[in-house]
Every structure is written in structure tokens, then in C-alpha cells.
Amino acid sequence: MWTIYRSVFSEADRGLLVLLDPDRSDEEHLNRLLPRLNDSPRVRAVLVGTSILMSPGLDTFVERVKNKCRKPVILFPGSVVQLTPKADALLYLVMVSGRNPELLIGEHVKAAPLIRHYGMEAIATAYILVESGAYTAVEYVSFTRPIPRNKPEIVVAHALAAYYMGMKAVYLEGGSGAREPVPAQVIRAVREAVPLPLIVGGGLRTREQVETAFQAGANLAVVGTALEEDPDLLELL
Fold this sequence. Notes:
Elements: H1 3-9, E1 15-20, H2 27-39, E2 43-48, H3 58-68, E3 73-75, E4 89-94, H4 101-118, E5 121-129, H5 137-142, H6 152-164, E6 169-173, H7 184-193, E7 198-201, H8 207-216, E8 220-223, H9 225-229
Parallel strand pairs: 1-2, 1-8, 2-3, 3-4, 4-5, 5-6, 6-7, 7-8
Helix pairs in contact: 6-7, 7-8
């Protein structure tokens, strides 16, 4: 139990999580990117997920990823329809920064019987949306507003609440296509307040931005859009 959590989220070394969107990752893209993941000591795991799944065949997509990549595959589901037993684990995301009851408990109740049936490892993760300078898909689809990027104390309060409720990790999210990554002061404030694995994603496109997140206290940095545009970028991260 908690095999993926211990191996991916609890290591002292900083690492990358590579996010694959099933709707935007065709065979050519996977063939270019996935072998690079095997060779990268920084890549800890692959995340698979999207805001709205437009194409069928999530099972097949995850199988294709696992056939080409030796890293653990973890679901990053936007809803209960994005579950598949083919993955190694899933982030059991609770959007604590919003007040949409479906993303606080509704989707989780729907997913729970399936998770038990599949025998999947579910990693309870506090999902906190931080303002990124753009109106992102996650903001639109989730019917929630991000926390202002200049209010680290509000982000910390949400992270602390998640910690006291027994969450296993905190995910600070700028959103796919974010114009600006989560500010270093926000990451640092959460790191100082909460002793949980800290994931940071959204708007990370350069090595400098990734390193800034790590230096501020992130354990894991999520990179997605940048690698969709240029898989070769992985060698520079």
C-alpha cells in the first residue's frame, strides 16, 4: 500500500512530473517524448489527465504510455470519467481553493467505488488554484476562481486546512497554459507552513522557472504544455 506515494512523492530529491493530455498527445509526440523520459533521472513519473476528455480510449492511451515508458503512470483526473485501472495510481484531487461541492466531495463519492474495484492507489491531494495572469481551462471548467497570486497567506490557510484534514500532498496549480507560474513567495510560504510533499505546476516552461520553484520549496514540478510544443526541451529542464 502507498507504493507509488513512497517512491514518487516522499523522496528527498527534487523531481519532475510530466503531464500528458490524451487529447493533445498523438502517436508521433509520444514516440518523441517517452523514450526521453526513460533516460531522464529527473523525471519521477508521468501524469495523465485533462480538463475535459474529448477523445475516447483512455485505457488504450495509458497502455501506450506504459508500453513505451518505465516511469509510473499516475492519473490526474478532471472528473470521474477519467479513471482507468491501467494506471499505477491516481491523484485523488480535492479542490480546496474552490467552493464547488462537486470538486470538494461530489466527484470523489462517485469515484470511490471504482477506485476500490480497480484496487488503485489513491493519493489524497489538496488542489489549490493560484492566479496565473490568464483565464485558464481549469478555472472555467471547475467553476472556481483562483486565489490571488499576491495573497500567500490565503494559500497557506488552504494548505494548512488540507494538512489538518489528512491530505497526503499539496498541489499548487497555475493552470494549463498559465501566463505566469506560481510565485516563489507563495511556494515558500506553503513550504514553511506545511510538512507535505509539495507539487507545483502551470506556466513552467524553462529550466530557470523550474529551478525557482525548487529553490522556493517545491518537491515536484509539473511540466506539460512546454513539452507538448517541444519534447527536446526535456533535456534542458
